[in-house]
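Researcher: Here's the sequence for the chain we discussed earlier.
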Amino acid sequence: MLTGVSVSCFLLSYVVVLVVEASRFLFKLPGRSVVLIAMLSAGLAAHSIFVFNEMIVGVPSSAPELLSSWFQWAVIAAWGLAVACLILTIRNPDRAMGLFLIPVVLGLIGLAQLVREAPPFHPSTTVNLWRAIHGVSLLVGTMIICFGFAFGLMYLVQSHRLKSKVRSRGGLRLPTLEFLQSMNRSSLFISTVSLGLGLLSGIVLNLGRDGQIAWYSGGILFTVVLFAWSLIASLMELSSSSALGGRQSAYLAIANFFFLVVVLGLVLFSSHGIPPIPSTTVGFSQELLGQVTQGPI
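Model: Thanks. This is the structure I predict for it:
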């Protein structure tokens, strides 16, 4: 497999896609959809190779390390959104959905770079069914929330353009409000289910590893809060007869994203998933420190 692929390879492709999408505001470009699909495909190819090299090549088969660090988690989340962007661009080449999705992809790549040196998750839980369910569920929930954020923004922009009777400038076209509303609603419901499954598997994982659940630890507490908010947002969407209509779905999807950003920031500053320092090591360090401070006998 290719080993010279770095983050900058697919990052540059996605930046080019964003620039081409943004050029819709300025001028019409013949063959724009072809350029977008080609650059997205190139970026995804490099991205896929990078993910393969990062998580499979050189890793012992007895100890696979899928989603074993925040860096991998963010890179795969960006990859998933990029795949969705490519599919939507192929199916709707004249719609500027990449203008809203690619910035989120770039944001996740930036997050990955920020946490690249962060310690990996607890090694004893790397090869574990519940560990896999926990990581994948939260990853899917995060991707869906980011997806909903992009479509929520699209809905508000398109709604404003239609109400203001703004003509499409430079070929800037967005999906219909009905499609965008359905995507926002789906993102709310699917993310709630994914977060709930991630929370449940995390509880089982903690019980199996520690024999207890530290409800007030940062990672667990923040995950519970995020799931609770997502559940409330979904129930509001189901039971509401608000005159806001599709705008309510958009507002809830956007609020879901900002809530995720806050919770994710708090989790990153907590010790969630990071292996604790063994007590024997602590004891040895304290003993060594005592000998140093006392000096030779």
